[in-house]
Amino acid sequence: FSGYLLPWDQRAYWATQVGVNIVGTIPLVGDTLVRIIRGGLTLGTMTLSRFFALHTVFLPWLLMALVAMHLITLRRVGPAGPWDASRAATISEPFWPKQVAMDAIAMFVAFATLVGVALALPPSLADRANPADTTFAPIPEWYFLFYYELLKYFRGPWEIVGTVVVPVLFYTLLFLLPFLDRRPERQPFSRPIVIGAGGLLLIVVFTFLFISLKRVAAIPVTDPSVARGKQLYHSLGCAACHRIHGEGEAIGPDLSSIGSQRDAAWLRKRLREPKSVVPGSIMPAYTSLSEGELKDLINYLLSLK
Question: What percent of the chain has pLDDT over 70?
Answer without folding.
Answer: 95
